[in-house]
Amino acid sequence: MASRRAAVGLFMALSLAAGAGQAGSLVANFCGQTTPLSAAQHDRLLRFAAIVREVLDREAQGVALVSRSGLDLDRFGVRYSHAGLALADGAGTRWAVRQLYYDCEAAQPRLYDQGLAGFVAGVHEPDRGFVSLLLPPADAAQRLTVTARDRPRALRLLAARYSANAHAWSLDYQNCNQWVAELMATAEGGLVDGPDLRARAQEWLRMAGYQPAAVDAGSHAVMFAAGFVPWVRLDDRPEEERYSLVFHLSLPRSLEAFALARWPGARRVALCYTGDRVVLRRDGDPLPADCTPQPGDEVRAL
């Protein structure tokens, strides 16, 4: 039987903790099967994924940083919680997202190539969702593709232990977005393989001006969650950060900001769906929470 996979976020853990009381069942529910989609929801997500694929086919240079929304995270100021690298196959006819996920059965992080439709289906809100595509220019795309497909280096960057709220400047744990950040550093810095690759990647990020996201958890529920949720850790960060509840971690927005600063020719395409429409926005302000189109947006029937 295939291992259960979870692209776990700090905010999911906080949501679990907020309703805590039966810790074991919370963990079991998260790692178990998700609520089945209705036929209409499944069809909508497949149609949305087809539009995302069309954008990649037409505008990407074989690779894209792809991010998706998760739960309603407005109270944390976060829309996109999980990122990976969308890679085209050799024929350019199929896209798969290479990403870090938490293997619930093995209780450890792994790398996983997921079809684009499956990645998009992880938005958690099947009736409304958001996807962001960061499209590197050709030279950066080539470096990123070569590094992502270099199995020894990609695996060397995978930490042995997972934490959804992993500190961006610690080697103790890693979250899904931190793996992407360190892979980007390895590509851009031309870092060779070796047992200290993660440390060198983080040092390169520091020197290049990478800024992790500062997230105000806003509740001591995370302190409680760290006691029983296996993917939330606090022992990798300074004491003042643990008690201020402002965590510095890698999120899709920090990856995108770094990529846009590093690659002047990069472009961003944001997509959302709701009801019977998809809205596409290129290089503009964030899409509205209700996915209402504004002048200049492209609207597709869904």
Tell me what you see in this structure:
The chain has 302 residues and is α+β, with helices and mostly antiparallel strands. It has one domain (5-274). The chain has helices at residues 10-18, 23-31, 39-59, 116-120, 138-148, 151-156, 176-189, 197-207, 221-225, 239-244, 252-262; strands spanning 5-6, 63-69, 80-88, 95-103, 108-115, 128-135, 213-216, 246-249, 267-274, 277-282, 298-301. Strand 4 and strand 5 (108-115) form a beta hairpin. It is globular, with a radius of gyration of 18 Å.
What's the short story on this structure?
The chain has helices at about 10-20, 25-30, 40-60, 115-120, 140-150, 150-155, 175-190, 195-205, 220-225, 240-245, 250-260, and strands at about 5, 65-70, 80-90, 95-105, 110-115, 130-135, 215, 245-250, 265-275, 275-280, 300.
Low-confidence stretches: 14-29, 224-228
- Number of DSSP helical runs: 11
Query: What about the largest sheet?
Result: 9 strands, antiparallel
Number of domains: 1
Percent of sequence in beta strands: 15-25%
Mean pLDDT: 84
Order of helices and strands: EHHHEEEEHEHHHHEHHEHEEE
Total E-strand runs: 11
Structural class: alpha+beta
Please estimate the helix content.
Answer: 25-40%
Q: Give the N-terminus to C-terminus distance in angstroms.
A: 35 Å
The outline comes out as globular
Radius of gyration: 18 Å
